[in-house]
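Case study B.
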Amino acid sequence: EMQLVESGGGLVQPGRSLRLSCAASGFTFDDYAMHWVRQAPGKGLEWVSGISWNSGNIGYADSVKGRFTISRDNAKNSLYLQMNSLRAEDTALYYCAKGITGTIVDDYFDYWGQGTLVTVSS
Amino acid sequence: QSVLTQPPSASGTPGQRVTISCSGSSSNIGSNYVYWYQQLPGTAPKLLIYRNNQRPSGVPDRFSGSKSGTSASLAISGLRSEDEADYYCAAWDDSLSGLYVFGTGTKVTVL
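Model:
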């Protein structure tokens, strides 16, 4: 059974850092691109970042570019999101999502985790 | 912020047909595939339609997608109570360094 389990969320002060993780199982992790999508409380979905199967192609939303870094460890079947200089507007439920191809271009998401909540507040 | 515009709400009675629109531009819907996701209350989104009009395995044929120019639509026929959810369109946007953009979302209520 395919599973994506996010972790690492929590309450953090503005300006601080947090690292999210996503543990994948039930599929060949290094065949697929992976993505982070977030949802602020009561709001819609926002794509945050994506990474290709071999980390050779990476993309970020303008809202997080320069502050967030996506990475993956195929040996550990894990996806990460390093979030620096956090702002109140980064408060959201962060979902890990599996792509359907190996590249982030023209990709889409066929499986999602349950999300981990990040709250940025003093 | 979303660059794909959807109506905030739509509703219908059981058995009716409901249509949700998604308006974009030449850099997203006009030149790329459209995807639709369903988010039931308190759950993660689920892929409903891919590549404009394709249904993943397990998605009922009551759900159908279409695209014309810079707009797309999702139709739900034979509306059922379990269809009450938020629906989001999405597409890649060529003008924004290859960003993936979601629609503003539509809450479907079954009356």
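Chain B has a mean pLDDT of 95. The remaining cases will be described in the next quarterly update.
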